[in-house]
Design brief:
532 residues; 4-stranded mixed β-sheet
């Protein structure tokens, strides 16, 4: 009997959806697990940008927020920016002028918004007066054609004409026994040459302007019709838009939506792949100024760091996996007798340490946890998940999804190998410190690929009180093959003081103030000097 239960459980694990966008919205609501004050922050009526790396749950959060607002009677406009337009490749086509690409992006986004509003008004025709909303939506559709991005450039046109004339004359004489012949010959040649040239000259920064037509006024009229309801505009997958076009889309949002009372905007983005504004002349700018126009106080990476609280981490993933498992068709059709999280853990895993290993391997990224448990279930078959299954699955997931992301970028791959050698090989640790003011593209690439993770920011030091550091942790996949070997990391961070008899001391929880951390600091200058 236990074998049948575990076989069914593992099949249910393998039936989990890997990405939130492939799950029905009602299931997303049912499987959402709140973390701390996250949902409270997102429920504010402030315009917000929600940051988070791939896999931290941005789409899941927006869909849960969408369901909550709909339950309260509000209007929700959800736009997946990765799916807008009939031909998304045109946005990245560098052969097309940026003004044309930006204009098409804005138009396609507004069309998606229009479609969402149209659906809402049709579904609520009994409550809302279609005689008012219908013409208003028609005007909205017409106003979209007025949206355009134009650039100011100087055009020079040159035209030239030249004319040449050549005259010649001569006398020809022919004498014979019978006759005398005289002939006068003349010749005229005239040549006219026309030339035309046109050139575009750019002086200084090329300025672009976004024209919105009457879209803002129409938004104001929409809010009048639906009052006291509010409109929540949720823009997902912001970072899927080419980065050079993002400020234009942000400008559309800022000018036509932000000023309207009764409209709340939430944007989900990856910080390292986002650009919300660029400067113009005389202090002006195109886009959204974070902190001033929209709050940027929610970062899912911060909410998903559990290394400082093992109990909180365990509770989150216990709820996450159990809720996702219950939503699968296999679980619902199987009479497994699993009706609580406690029973779920006791049945699905050989022991609690196995589940703890899964939590550790996920490194605070829910998508990684789901992918690892799916792979581990394949290894387990009809058995409960064991530590060996989790470690093999974590290694496979790391090789396939994470390390593969940096293989195409040779410098990032070299830096990763150097960090692993320095931190794990030489220091026998899992984490390192990097100056908070050090901005490095390769470090950001590793962070974006979820190969390194930030545990804590702005750590002070005893030796350098004015210097601040961030604590980075290497991904579980970087050292899973070393576990239970002589090369296995001995702790999170290595301290300067030896523990006696040549043994190093380590700490597992990063404090706010380090007294002896010189061995934990990573000097990137050493890597770049060696790479020359």
């Amino acid at each position: 009997m236990p074998e049948k239960v575990n076989a069914a459980l593992n099949r249910a694990f393998m039936g989990l959806a890997r990405r939130a966008e492939r799950i029905d919205r009602s299931r997303l609501v049912d499987t959402f697990v709140d973390v701390g004050s996250l949902f409270t922050l997102l429920s504010s009526v402030d315009h917000q940008v929600i940051f988070g790396r791939r896999g931290t749950g941005k789409t899941h959060v927006l869909n849960y927020l969408s369901g909550a607002r709909l339950d309260d009677g509000d209007v929700v406009v959800y736009v997946d920016l990765s799916n807008i337009g009939s031909s998304g490749g045109i946005y990245s086509d560098q052969d097309i002028p940026i003004t044309e690409r930006a204009t098409r992006l804005l138009v396609d986004t507004l069309l998606a918004v229009h479609d969402s509003l149209f659906t809402y008004f049709v579904e609520h025709a009994e409550e809302l007066d279609l005689s008012r909303s219908g013409p208003l939506l028609d005007r909205f559709a017409n106003s979209i054609t007025q949206v355009r991005v134009v650039g100011e450039v100087e055009t020079q046109v040159k035209q030239a004409q030249s004319k040449a004339q050549e005259d010649s004359s001569g006398l020809r004489t022919a004498i014979s026994a019978e006759s005398l012949e005289l002939a006068l010959e003349t010749e005229n040649k005239e040549t006219t040459t026309d030339s035309f040239s046109a050139s575009t000259e750019r002086r200084g920064r090329e300025r672009h302007t976004v024209h919105f037509g009457s879209t803002r006024r129409i938004w104001e009229e929409i809010t009048e019709i639906i009052r006291p309801r509010s409109v929540w505009v949720l823009l997902d997958e912001w970072s899927s838009v080419p980065i050079e076009l993002q400020p234009y889309l942000a400008d559309l949002v800022r000018r036509s939506i932000f000023p309207v009372r009764g409209v709340v905007t939430k944007i989900a983005a990856i910080e390292q792949r986002s650009s919300f504004s660029f400067p113009q002349d005389k202090g002006n700018y195109i886009g959204i100024e974070l902190g001033a126009d929209a709050a940027a106080d929610v970062n899912l990476d911060d909410f998903m760091v559990f290394d400082n609280d093992a109990t909180r981490a365990r509770n989150f993933y216990k709820g996450l996996l159990f809720k996702h498992l219950k939503s699968t068709e296999i679980f619902q059709k199987s009479a497994l007798g699993i009706d609580s999280e406690v029973t779920f853990l006791r049945t699905a895993f050989t022991q609690i340490t196995t589940f703890d290993e899964l939590v550790r391997a996920s490194e605070g990224v829910p998508r990684d946890a789901i992918n690892i448990v799916i792979q581990a279930a394949q290894y387990a078959g009809s058995e409960p998940l064991s530590v060996d299954h989790v470690r093999r699955a974590a290694d496979a997931w790391y090789q396939r999804d994470k390390e593969g992301a940096v293989k195409e970028r040779e410098n990032a791959k070299s830096l990763l190998h150097w960090i692993i050698q320095e931190v794990i090989g030489s220091r026998r640790a899992r984490a390192f410190l990097l100056g908070s003011d050090e901005k490095d593209d390769l470090i950001e690439a590793l962070f974006d690929a979820r190969i390194i993770h930030i545990l804590k920011k702005n750590i002070s030091t005893h030796d350098e009180p004015g210097k601040r550091f961030d604590v980075y942790k290497l991904d579980y996949g970087c050292y899973v093959n070393f576990i239970s070997t002589a090369k296995s990391p001995q702790g999170l961070l290595q301290l300067d003081d030896d523990g006696g008899e040549g043994h190093s001391q380590f700490i597992e929880v990063p404090p706010d103030d380090y007294r002896a951390i010189r061995r934990a600091i990573l000097r990137l200058s050493e890597f770049y000097q060696g790479a020359r």
